[in-house]
Design brief:
heterodimer, A: 607 residues, alpha/beta, MetI-like fold, Rossmann fold, 2 domains, 4-stranded antiparallel sheet, B: 312 residues, mainly alpha, 81% helix, 0% strand
Chain lengths: 607, 312
């Protein structure tokens, strides 16, 4: 791989997890040594270094000594462990000397690149300003040109001096260190504890030395593996091109000699190529292992095997403690004729064979034309419940028990039914309007595609329906909004667009997940009013997820209160407000009352 | 969009001037060394000085650069110090070979990266794990080591494909295609490995976003969600990655052309470097940076097409 792509490959992901880089030295080393691949790489690299440094001193054959009778000799003949090359020289001895040179060259590249890149990155990231602007521009310019071409261009100036060339290469590749250090320093600099350290009167030098370097050293160490590999590659490349010192054996020179001679024998080229490939792969694998060691297990995406899921489901079914106490109040789930959720349990893996349930044994029901509110704090499982109904749970989520019946058929186990009702009979209004529109397509294009998919109408018919609906949801200039990209409209407009998208195929059920939370207060009231009108107009059944009792009072016929993944209380809205049974419900209600007088359902003022 | 293109053009011109000037200044800072390399070790000091003056290497570097740049703008890149050949003509016969190599590889890399990257992101499991290991190993090994292994296996041991030599497509299209198989593969291994792991990451990022779930709730087919919506949004960052890959390919092509004896720009740069043919070398540098700049401009334009925010 080229230098540029090594640098590119070292980037993605590394700056994204600065939090994982805080000092954990002992555990990191221990975790690294627990990884057999890392240990194998370390041992191999140590062997390579020893071979290169100690080897030349204990060699029995002079690497320059040509014994014509051993030309292209097979391994083991005449004291030549790996055989002889085209000039009858000992491949093993030449490899040892070449390895030593490669080790030195790789270290030169690393020292120069790290010295320049890290220093400039710390200054640029910490102080910013003109220095950063100039340094970043220079870094971009250096990265735009293939390094090997630049090295070739200055060959007439520096001549066949490979170590000097490697130092120059260190300069050329230093933007890799610069960008990484600068990005991470910027992140750390904006952390609160750095502000605290400043206020405490610590000097900039001490903050950089203590806090910033602590945070960046993990990723820098990981990148160093790639840089060493790049150095070895580029040195061999230059030697191969005849731009090194031809009188000294090196991996590149040996490969060039072997290549010219390959129709006679392949071994002289295979040995250096193999050694070099293994060395570079070890460096990169070690870097990867190091990255894994720095990362905590939680950051890795866990997948449960179907067998594990089956076992967990069986365990859950057999465990009497898994069944929640029935919710207080007057749950109406059994009689519901549109949607019934029975004993739903959703869990996420916490390791290869353990899970944490985010929704436990939840049951609720919604009648035609009824609005059912789900209230609770964030993390109580209310959004997860609605995602399960819609079939859009995260890929790692697993259903451990229960069913979601829509018109009597289970959506969870029947993908055909899921496809038939999703978008056609069940609509979804999400929480964050902007994040829920595809940024690359116009509003019209994405709504039109959905409507056509759901109802099979033509593009023109769909457009006519949507324009009328956009006007209905209160958008002043429907045609303009239809032709706009999501970034060109406001959050309130985006939410109206999403509402139009949800009701366009004329569904009989809506799931609204905190539909007003992300909006300005004035827009909130308008959107709620719109939802209420549409619901009444079309007789929609609805699940409305919210943490706001005001919204519940405004819109809902029934309400369920969720806490820690369970429904603790469920009742008609009036009854729940008038006569809360559960302590938690009372606490939530009083919290609302403390903040502002409770709004009564419309038309019931003064009740 | 027009101001966007104009800004890109200005920064591209700046980059070309910077790279050529710095290279020029470094190379010409030691004119005596150039003269000595050209004449070899067997000539007297006086002859070296005469050559030095003769080539105008005694003038200030900035002045020499000005003259070179002025001539270059009119298409005159001088004559070779070694063969007396017109540099511009030599470049024009070499450039198509390198461009074919790089563009063909880029095209294949794009197709393979999208296919493997999307498959790994969507399927996960063993497909994903295999890709991760392959991409680390495939992406780490230098292109010319891959080239050496390919030659050893397919050309020397099995004798399936030609190891070296380039046939012009005008002469024999089949031989031309065959002569490109191994060189393209040698660069492709690393490029596709890094490319697919990048596309995989971008796709995973997109698939976690909320709009994807919302599209699904509207009943839009999984195929459209993946390939029309998620992939299109992932393509922007993916294209930027392709630009970096292309720079790497240009550098790698120097070695690949040498290994497979392809008469391209890299090969020309290599021979010019060794023989001290500075005008030829400067032209190679100029055209390399021009290719980089053009590829990046094309990518910027594609980004503009893909991303409505850039188009404004």
């Amino acid at each position: 791989m080229s230098v540029e792509s090594i640098v590119a490959a070292s980037f993605p992901g590394v700056p994204a997890e600065p939090d994982d880089a805080y000092p954990k030295q002992v555990p990191v080393l221990r975790r690294l040594l627990a990884n057999p691949i890392a240990v194998a790489c370390l041992v191999f690299l140590l062997g390579v270094v020893l071979f290169g440094i100690v080897g030349p001193f204990v060699l029995t054959n002079d690497p320059a000594d040509a014994r014509l009778e051993l030309t292209n000799a097979p391994p083991g003949t005449g004291g030549y462990l790996l055989g002889g090359d085209h000039a009858g020289r000992d491949i093993f001895s030449r490899l040892a000397v070449g390895t030593g040179e490669s080790v030195i060259c790789a270290l030169i590249v690393l020292a120069v690149a790290a010295g320049i890149g890290i220093t400039a990155g710390l200054i640029g990231g910490y102080y910013g300003g003109k220095f950063e602007a100039v340094a970043s521009w220079l870094a971009d310019a250096l990265m735009a040109m293939p390094g090997i071409i630049l090295l070739m261009a200055i060959f007439p100036l520096i001549g066949p001096n490979i170590r000097l060339a490697m130092a120059v290469f260190g300069v050329i590749i230093s933007p890799a260190f610069y960008r990484l250090t600068r990005a991470m320093t910027l992140t750390v600099r904006n952390e609160l504890y750095v502000d605290a350290a400043k206020i405490a009167g610590l000097s900039d030098a001490r903050i950089i030395g203590k806090h910033v370097l602590n945070a960046v050293r993990g990723p820098l160490l990981i990148m160093s593996g790639g840089i060493l590999g790049a150095g070895i590659g580029i040195q061999a490349a230059l030697e191969y091109l005849g731009l090194g010192d031809p009188s000294r054996p090196s991996w590149g020179v040996m490969m060039q000699d072997g290549f010219n001679n390959m129709y006679a024998t392949l071994l002289p080229i295979v040995w250096p190529a193999l050694l070099m490939a293994l060395t570079i792969v070890s460096l990169v694998l070690l870097g990867n292992a190091l990255r894994d060691a720095f990362e905590t297990s939680a950051s890795q995406s866990l997948q449960l095997t179907p067998a594990t899921v089956a076992r967990l489901r069986a365990e859950r079914a057999a465990d009497p403690a898994a069944v929640s106490a029935p919710p207080k109040g007057a749950p109406a789930e059994t009689a519901a004729d549109l949607l019934q959720v029975h004993h739903l349990t959703i869990a996420y893996p916490t390791s290869g064979d353990t899970v944490r349930a985010v929704v436990s044994d939840v049951s609720l029901g919604v009648h035609k034309g009824e609005v059912h509110g789900i209230v609770g704090e964030s993390g109580s499982g209310k959004s997860q419940t609605s995602f399960a109904i819609l079939g859009i749970l995260a890929p790692t989520a697993r259903i451990l028990s229960g069913e979601v019946l829509f018109d009597g058929r289970d959506l969870l186990t029947d993908p055909t039914w899921q496809r038939q009702v999703r978008g056609r009979r069940i609509g979804y209004i999400p929480q964050e309007p902007m994040a829920n529109l595809d940024p690359s397509f116009t509003v019209g294009a994405q709504l039109n595609e959905g409507l056509r998919e759901a109802t099979g109408v033509s593009k023109a018919e769909a457009k006519a329906t949507l324009l009328a609906l956009l006007a209905r949801v209160g958008i002043k200039d429907p045609q303009r909004t239809y032709d706009s990209y999501p970034h060109q409209i406001s959050g309130g407009m985006a939410q109206r667009v999403l509402i139009a998208g949800a009701i366009a195929p004329d569904p009989d059920f809506l799931v609204a997940d905190e539909p007003t939370t992300a909006l300005d207060v004035t827009v909130q009231a308008e959107v709620l009013e719109l939802l209420r009108e549409l619901q009444a107009e079309r007789g929609l059944g609805m699940i409305l997820v919210t943490h706001n009792f005001g919204v519940v009072a405004d819109l809902c016929d029934r309400v369920s209160v969720m806490k820690d993944g369970r429904i603790v209380e469920s009742n008609t809205t009036e009854e729940l407000f008038a006569n809360p049974q559960d302590d938690y419900t009372r606490m939530l209600l009083s919290a609302t009352l403390d903040a502002a007088p409770l709004r009564r359902p419309l038309g019931q003022e003064g009740v | 969009m027009l101001t966007f293109i104009a800004k890109r053009l200005v920064s591209a011109v700046g980059l070309v001037l910077l790279v050529t000037f710095v290279t020029f200044a470094l190379v010409f800072s030691n004119g005596m060394a150039i003269a000595r390399t050209l004449l070899g070790n067997s000539v007297s000091e006086a002859e070296v000085v005469a050559k030095y003056r003769d080539l105008g290497l005694d003038q200030p570097v900035v002045q020499q650069y000005g003259q070179w740049l002025g001539a270059a703008l009119t298409g005159n890149l001088g004559r070779s110090y070694v063969s007396g050949e017109v540099v511009a003509e030599a470049i024009m016969t070499r450039l198509p070979v390198t461009l074919t190599l790089v563009l063909l590889t880029l095209l294949f890399a794009l197709v393979i990266s999208v296919g493997l990257g999307v498959a790994a992101a969507v399927k996960g499991g063993w497909v994903d794990r295999v890709l991760q290991v392959v991409s680390v190993v495939g992406g780490a090994i230098p292109q010319f080591i891959v080239a050496v292994f390919l030659v050893v296996t397919f050309a020397v041991t099995w004798r399936l494909l030609p190891a070296t030599g380039y046939v012009s497509p005008d002469v024999d299209p089949v031989m031309w295609a065959l002569s490109l198989v191994l060189p393209v593969t040698a660069i492709l291994v690393g490029a596709a490995a890094s490319g697919s792991i990048q596309i995989r990451g971008r796709m995973l990022d997109e698939l976690r976003k909320e709009y994807v779930a919302t599209l699904r709730t509207r009943g839009i087919s999984e195929r459209s969600v993946l390939f029309k919506h998620a992939l299109r949004n992932a393509a922007g960052p993916g294209l930027i990655g392709m630009g970096i890959l292309a720079i790497g390919m240009l550098g790698g092509s120097v070695l690949i052309e040498r290994v497979f004896a392809l008469p391209g720009l890299g090969m020309l740069a290599n021979t010019s470097t060794v023989s001290g043919d500075i005008p030829m070398l400067m032209a190679c540098v100029l055209f390399t940076i021009l290719v980089v700049v053009v590829i990046n401009l094309v990518i910027d334009l594609l980004l503009g097409v893909l991303n409505p925010k850039v188009r404004l």
